[in-house]
Predict the 3D structure of the following.
Amino acid sequence: MAETLKGLGVSPGRAAGRVCRMAAPPELPAPAPVADADAELGRALDALRATAAELAERAEKAPDADARAILEAQSFIADDPGLHESVEAGVRSGKDAAHAIDEACAHHRRALLAAGGYIAERAADLDDVRNRAVAAVLGLPVPGVPTPGHPFVLVAEDLSPADTVNLDPDTVLALVTSRGGPTSHTAILARARGLPAVVACREVSEVGEGTWVSVDGLRGEVEAGIGEEAAAEIQRLAEAERRRTSTSRGPGRTSDDHPVKLLLNIGSAADLAPREVDAEGVGLFRTEFLFLDRREEPGYEEQVAAYAAVFRAAPGGHVVVRTLDAGTDKPLPFLGLAEETNPALGVRGLRVSRVRPEVLDTQLDAIAEAARQSGAEPWVMAPMVTTVGEAADFAGRARARGIDRVGAMVEVPAAALRAERLLRELDFLSIGTNDLSQYTFASDRQHGDLADLLDPWQAALLQLIADCATAGQAVGKPVGVCGEAAADPLLATVLVGLGVTSLSMSAPSVPAVRESLAAHSLAQCRDNARLALGADDPGQARKMIVPGW
Amino acid sequence: MPERTVVIASSTGLHARPAKIFVQAAAKQGMPVRIRVGEGKPVPANSMLAVLALGATHGTEVTLDAEGPGADEALDSLADLLARDLDAEETPHG
């Protein structure tokens, strides 16, 4: 008997397959007495060697070079002679295999953390090795993403960045999490890979391993117990749909030819490598990816080269560059920012320039030089702009370097409320819906229990977007949306109806959004916008626009 | 004991892919090779965890040592590896 479970759809598309659950990290049992230390050491080292072999095997099958490098490094860690020595010392002092592995890993973890900076981030790799080896010793299921040898729907409480790096897009059909929200790592990963995903689906924790389920990432529904034949039919239809949309081409247009630019969110030129997606430019170039994992600020020359590479590779040469978006919530060691009790409300985004103005100056110099070298005319915007004064200061610094199109991200309600004044200083606005939700609804982006508040269909969020768009229309300046909300094909019609002029998203989302706009006239988009603004909750908004939702 | 002092050339430091390549090469030498930063404690060059914990970044000066027949050749080849920008070679993503 099929049963429908409700959650929040965060990445559109349909898929069906068997459920595979991500096992939790193993918990240590009470220490056991060791009768035969040699045999116990053998068990511990066998577990580590088996872990190393399995990680090496997965590295060979890794979908890309980054994932392969991480898995290879982990395999080396599991085989590390220094780690094996620590384990041996533990067993010789009377510990059982599981505790000896646990403590040896804890010891080396401290050494990595002491090295600080990006080395400290490798502690997560060591934790993963520890979990796998301890599970092997205890005979527990392997923690992390399962590898059942057939395609599956991955079910988990939530996914961390470390889990998601290993996801093989050929075998993972869809993601369903019992926690997580529309801006969680799970949601962002799913959209980046074009995987259907439903989050905040509490009841999915009751669905048994191997159950046949279908996932509707648009409606946020999971149907459990559908049977193998129904699943095969859904997969067949989904595959046909993917083939059809992958050939979609051309600029964004409503059915009556109202233009809406469809743009890409990228982190580096690598994201623009030849691919099937046709877009009209880059709407969000997140420059911080160049700065991550760095103990020293990347130099001027290196920045020029990285930016010029993006300017040259961008479709139509159109690129909106966002200056460094870092802070204590996304720490960069070289910034040397003081610890904060509430990082999301602290020194982040443009605010970093209050304490380290030279970092932004160097970046603007590099963007201007890259523009000269590549002949591009990039648009440049700052993250976390809050006041008109901040916007004016940023615009002055950018224009002094010959950057002509200067804008701001609207992520703080204070900025949205003053959009009209901001546009006296700036040439465009780009709305970051993830942070704007977080700050408007006073809800942490990663908070699994507040997912409903972070739903981009919330009318208060749409009202702020409407205010920005209206301010832009009044003076004929572009107002785009570059948050994840732009990737929802139905919400895209609402945003266009509110007056938004461009939508920027990860590449796999473009075809479905293009099709959705092409199926609606501007008048229908405006009707949808009016209905969504008038609704009291997101569920009601969706139902009013799509009867029977 | 033969030693070689070399400046880390890889842009990400002795980390990620460069660390893996170095540790792999060190493990293949027929003798124990050690590595240290400045006057710090030498650690086994075939240990990924120990090499990572050195925290050697781009521009850090490290010293390798080894003893026994063939030590000079082993140290030369490892020092040569560290003096190259291993990130620039065969970059991921292409």
